[in-house]
Amino acid sequence: MRLNVTIRFYEELNDFIKEELRKKQIETSFYGKRTVKDLIESYGVPHGEVDLILINGESVGFDYIVNDKDLISVYPVFERFNINGLSKLRQSSLRETKFILDVHLGKLAKYLRLLGFDTIYDHEMDDPELALISNKNKRILLTRDKGLLMRRLVERGLFIRNNDPYKQCLEVLEKLDLWDTIHPFSRCMVCNQEIEKIEINTPKYKLIETLIPPKVKEWCTVYNYCSNCHKIYWKGSHWNRMNIFLDKLIEDKNR
Ligand SMILES: [Zn+2]
Fold first, then answer.
1. Of 67, 104, 164, 255, which residue has the fewest beta carbons closer than 10 angstroms?
2. How far apart are CA 189 and CA 196, in angstroms?
3. How far is the CA of 188 from the centre of ligand 1 (A)?
4. 2-76 architecture in CATH?
């Protein structure tokens, strides 16, 4: 039997589909049994970007088998308008924000760690590994590769539109509405471990003292220390540059 259905994609999901189909009811027909996930991805929209599917006004899961005359509405993961009361595709909140980044987003990884977000990045990871860790650790996968977001295991993903790392950082903060959750200088930019604050003349200070350049020791009294990779941070020129970066971010917020 030939099935006739209507499907509509909302907000930024339209970026993935052909221009002539954007922001309108798409009439389509096909033969045979088909899941709504399969139908959605046939338009080029990765399921990892989808958070809510309504069929004739009722929310359904990805494995829903499409019926004749279904009216299908597909909403993105980070859509901000109120969809409370409807059952979204994921039980837990996306607000517990942890990331895993695709191999080409190294600079963005550093920025996100600087802002305090738990961010896995390893330039040697391949696509299956990225998808698996994203799924197992419930990490939001950030990538500029739509194919990666279409992998079966990816439940949370965000396609990064910008090329420039600074703009990418702004894009992530805006899209996921993370401005209130940033904790600058709380995480190691090299290895992602949370760092601890160590003051001089404490037992812990004795353990790191030999790692500090003598010139810095002359004036600095508080250090941030990563016990994983043993990197030490202090309020020197690097710290100043990072502060300029943070100020610029805040300035560009909502611009
Ligand atoms: Zn570290």
1. 255
2. 13
3. 5
4. Roll (3.10)
